C-alpha cells in the first residue's frame, strides 16, 4: 500500500491522482490520509533514531551483553518511557543483539562405547493387519 501511495505521490503531476488511484486500485481518500501523515512518520523516524542512539549507548556500556529485556529495564531506569516491542523492533532493524557468554551445557551425553540398536524391521512401517508391527521411540 505504501509503495502505491509513494508512486502516486511521485507521478501525480503527470497523470493526476484520480487516474493513478483508479489504475492502482487504491482509495483516493486513503492517499490523502497517507499524505497528511507524512509529518508524523518523519517525527516517528527521528524518535526511532534517538531511541537507537540510546539503545546503542546502553548496549556499549554493558559490552554488548544486554538484550532487549535488560535494555528496556535500563532505559526505564534512566527515566525513558519505552515499550518493549518498540525497543525490540528498533534493535532488530539496526542489527543490535545481546551476546550469550555462558557455555551451553548438554545434560545427556551419549555413551560412545554402546553398540547401536539394530533396525529389526528395515524401516518398513507398513503392517499387513492392525497390531502386527508396534514400534516406539524414546528420543
TrEMBL record:
Family annotation (Pfam families): HTH_21
Protein name, per record: Transposase InsO family protein
Location of the HTH-like domain: 47-104
Organism in which the protein naturally occurs: Saccharothrix ecbatanensis
The organism's place on the tree of life at top rank: Bacteria
Membrane-traversing stretches: none
Amino acid at each position: 500500500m505504501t509503495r502505491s501511495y509513494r508512486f502516486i505521490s511521485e507521478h501525480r503531476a503527470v497523470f493526476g491522482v484520480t487516474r493513478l488511484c483508479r489504475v492502482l486500485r487504491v482509495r483516493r481518500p486513503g492517499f490523502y490520509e497517507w499524505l497528511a501523515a507524512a509529518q508524523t512518520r518523519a517525527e516517528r523516524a527521528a524518535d526511532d533514531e534517538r531511541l537507537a542512539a540510546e539503545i546503542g549507548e546502553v548496549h556499549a556500556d554493558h559490552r554488548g551483553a544486554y538484550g532487549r529485556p535488560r535494555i528496556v529495564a535500563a532505559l526505564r531506569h534512566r527515566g525513558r518511557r519505552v515499550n518493549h516491542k518498540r525497543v525490540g523492533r528498533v534493535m532488530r532493524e539496526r542489527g543490535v543483539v545481546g551476546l550469550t557468554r555462558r557455555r551451553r551445557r548438554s545434560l545427556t551425553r551419549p555413551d560412545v562405547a554402546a553398540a547401536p540398536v539394530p533396525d529389526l524391521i528395515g524401516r518398513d512401517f507398513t503392517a499387513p493387519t492392525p497390531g502386527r508391527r508396534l514400534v516406539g521411540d524414546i528420543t
